[in-house]
Batch of 4 targets.
Target 1
Amino acid sequence: MISHSPVSRLAKLGLSVFLVGVLGACASGSSAPRPAELGANPALLGVRTAWTTPVGKVDFPLSVHTTPTTVTLASSEGVVTSLDARTGAVLWRNNVGAPIAAGVGSDGQYAAVVTRNNELVTMAGERELWRSRLASQVFTAPLVAGQRVFVLGADRVVSAFDAVSGKKLWVNQRPGEALVLRQAGVLMAVNNTLVVGLAGRLVGLNPLNGTVIWDAPVATPRGTNDIERLVDLVAGVSRAANVVCVRAFQTAAACVNTDRGSVIWKQAASGAVGLHGDEQQVFGVEDDGKLLAWKLTGGTEVWRSERLRYRQLTAPLVLGRSVVTGDATGLLHFMSRVDGTPLTRLTTDGSAIAATPAVAGTTLVAVTRNGTVFGFQPE
């Protein structure tokens, strides 16, 4: 989720709308650093725009669900859309009747979103199956897996529902700080474990009953006020087999062995968006736009690039020989995964890239805040 200020990502439970608006206004201004000059496009990769499809504006922490043939996403006003990844043609649409706060989660059969009035809505294609009122706000897309829908609330309550009937199956509740991030957190399946970011900890839960299997401390709250103590884990996770690497908000990047629930390595890092990587390296974007690469084994820094500084970048995507990230002006930057040098860049509609770029088969998918979905393919 792109934000013009780290402060505008924060929310007090119960007071989020007013607090975010006031703090965001105070933090913005003409004193912001000037984005790095890009120079000529090196155009070292051949990539073309294959299709574009309008879906409606996006002003929430969007998660784009892809399969090799489909792209499923949602707009702020409440329309969930599934597209053909090869052509951009609309396969189905479903209007849930309320603005959306989090989504989309899907397993290819069922899809789920959470509305701004705290309703979890689950559908099978364009047919709504059920909806359930939640106790708190949600900023993280639901996880749909194993005929279940899992939800991570802003109050750090994890809930599980039957995907077909909507019956609540279990709840896991842990104490947390009063201040939370108004952006998506970590909620994923790793083999037979539900892996969740709860404050500064990565926790493995039994998906059948919600009991804790392991608990790995990634970052420890410090400081004397709520902002200084905020260490939430943010969406955008790098996974290689049983190793999951995550970012703690403006504190650290770390990798965890999910078989044992142990932290393999941890490095100080000041970013606010997630990570991505492969079997050799993990890539991340710092708040000031530096792009970093760490070794998967050991966490040693491999390289850093300052060519995209202050461009308000999305979390990265590793794709072929590139690391791809979007910026606040609607550009997609392809940087070499070897040393961070530019390979090419693509334009969209001039509004900010709204979510981490995603891949569906051979199509690179980017979504803008103005609500245009772009499908790019190699030439």
Note: The radius of gyration is 19 Å.
Target 2
Amino acid sequence: MRQRTLLLIAFGVLLLATIFVAGQLVTEEMLAVSFADKHLAPSLQHLYGTDWFGRDMFLRTLKGLSLSLVIGAASTIGAGIVAVFIGTAAALGGKRVDACIKWLTDVVMGMPHLILLILVAFLFGKGPQGIIIGMVLTHWTYLSRIVRAEVLQIKSSQYVKAARSFGRSRLHIAFRHLLPHVFPQFLVGLVLMFPHTILHEASLTFLGFGLSPHQPGVGVILSESLKYLSTGQWWTALLPGLSLLAVVRLFDRLGERLQALYHPNQAHD
């Protein structure tokens, strides 16, 4: 189990790096309009075919996935930092602070997730910045509850009580004793959150509240491709969509494996 998980981690990191580097190498000239090559089905020359402007769909998908990975990573890290801060504050701040954070968490989790994302992203001007801020402000809730539960459990341990008896401050105890023990759960939470942020970025863009049509993005490709599905150009939507789902499923599976390593008694395979 451990060896397979390490191999999956290595493969996931390699895939991320490959997609990112390949996407950065795709230039505007490589995506230039070529009406002589439009509406071409998938072939060895164009693996994903070409679109209505003759642009190579494989190169467009690589460029879009590269941007999605950057947005997803930034959103995940930002939401993770917020979750750790809020979860630790709830566990160490006393009953009033805990009650206020519980109320805030319930309010955020009680609102329809996609609608809240749309409102926040629209408020901050859409685009990559609006998407990242929207996901940071809406994706911290689940992980913050996990962090709170872990901190509550650890703070009653003997070594934390000993640190208090020596007059250590709450901040010192949090950074020196609590957060290192919370890190494995935090890492698993980040990996599980990452595919959700990628899907939500594509969903927002597909609905017209994310990236603009002039920016590369899988959501932009899928939204534009809907107009041409009825003409038989299935490859313009199917292949980019399957590529996105493959990346999402890979990291979802990776998160499950990491969770099984951290809780071996819950593993079933």
Note: The mean pLDDT is 84.
Target 3
Amino acid sequence: MMGGQDRHPGWPAKTPVAATRAGGVRLRPLSRRDGRRWSEYRIADEAQLRPVEPTVQGDWADAHSGQMWRRNVTGLLDMARQGVLAPFAIEVEGQFAGQLTLGNIQHGVVSSCWIGYWVYSGFAGNGVATAAVGLGTDHAMRYIGLHRVEATVLETNTASRRVLARAGYREEGRLVRNLHIDGRWRDHLLVGLTVEETGGGVLAGLQRSGILPARLR
């Protein structure tokens, strides 16, 4: 189930399936075939995504066209082959539901990466994002072999802050004007998690606490 290269263990790979109220959730390598759903879902969720994501120049629909998808996915897969990034599709019962990326992968004395994700609103409120973050964090630590995973999040993005907190991420500080979001430079909170804090794994902790079901019903 797990595969990869010596310089990039854990890629390409599919994760185990996590139970949620929406059904089974897993991560799998992002594919060029995901473009139609990616465009459809991103365009439909402009009102939710634009205020929390890096600034898009021009029209939102143009920025999420098939042509832009092909450009984006080519770049992501190239970086995955270089071992610096792991781009995943989030699946719910085999259907594309969003995207999760492990980026700036560094081994050696740094041994860390960042995690970023989005989930289509049609799957929201069912634990999908929480499961995806749990699966992604476990994958980064167990199979890519990293010691630390971190994320940045807008202070006003309460939904994402809740997801990260449930997965065990600690707030570590504030990054001042570090990302250009929706037309202006915005502060972000820095959150992090190290392998020593995860016990038997993030997903297992979410299941033990009852945040996620232990098995599919």
Note: The CA atoms of residues 80 and 171 lie 28 Å apart.
Target 4
Amino acid sequence: MSIQHLPLDQHRRHSRLHERVIFSRRVHLLLGLVVAVLLPGLWYWGWDFWLTVPLREWMTLVAAVAAYCLSIGSVQRLSQLPGTKAYVYIFPAVTLCYACALGVLELFHIDYSKPYILSSYVIAAVYCSIGYYVGARLRRLKLAVVPFGKATTLCHNHGVDWRILEAPRFDDLRVDGVVADLRADLPDDWERFLARCTIHRIPVYHATKAHEMLTGRVLLDHLYENKFGGLIPREDYEITKRGLDILAVLLLLPLMLPFMALVALAIRLDSKGPVFFTQPRMGFHCRQFIVYKFRSMYVDHEGTGYTQEGFDPRITRVGRIIRKYRIDELPQLFNVLKGDMSLIGPRPESISLTDSYEKDVPFFHYRHVVRPGISGWAQVEQGYAAEVDDMIRKLEYDFYYIKNFSFWLDVLIVIRTFKTLLTGFGSR
């Protein structure tokens, strides 16, 4: 059998495997609907429900179906982002979606069965959490690597089972995709191999793209491979994001203002000086703006141009607490209302640091193509950065955020921000 025909048969087996994976996901979704939605209905209403079809039961059933499908869809979208595990997010997703369904029913005064909704929620949360957890424990991402160019240097670790191919065929190997340096000079038989992978729906990833998917970073030495056009954020979501920012701040401020008043009082009692700290920062489209923060330092202490890590004598007692849990950033909600900032985006740097980093870090100003944020991808993944090497890594995270500018990435950052607030990760 020739080399041209051998891979084709193996590609077909992998194509069927890919179809089985998609089929299993659909079966999981349908089975979940049966277990979490239909079975509780039969328990409460019996088989005659399908004959009588009362409006109250129909509305309850529709709400449960919508909540379940939305929660599963949300988790599947989140699980495609770097460093995410579906079973970690399924319980909060199911809880939030069922809560939203109840909110809609209550808002429009729609009569519904509370015992059924509660039962459906409990079953969905338990069934999906166990299912996703068992699936994650039994299955590990397996990627084949074409041994040319940069592929072998970028493809390592990250919890992936890497398989370096010795010939343009799979033999008995089962993989979830193929990684190759598509800019390398590949032999003809390897190019035919990748073409057949694509034809038979086996994912083929460029090596740098695979690295981005797994690490959440865009390597600066590969930035030209994106031709800058790939880093332009989506304008449609930019408009939507601005509206969501305003709505979120207007909902948060009534809750936050009493708490902010208590923080302001604690600052005044702890040390002399103003409650707020203001500083010029580099913002959207390289326009300067004044950022607002709660003061966390003594007013009569001199220091460097950036905040020191570890013990810093310039920081007050209250300042250490509000810095650790990011409470000092709360006044930036007013920056969001003004349009200077967004809730989510790259953190704005001071003018002096911006000028300094721009001399050492290529493309630094490109991070200002989107509005800076109170929290961002680099903050939840890396934490605080002051040195040039740390700033380069932070910039790689910022570029990943810009390149993958989307609602779901923002949702993931919000979730991880809450984790940061609870743990104090990356405080300074």
Note: The CA atoms of residues 378 and 394 lie 5 Å apart.
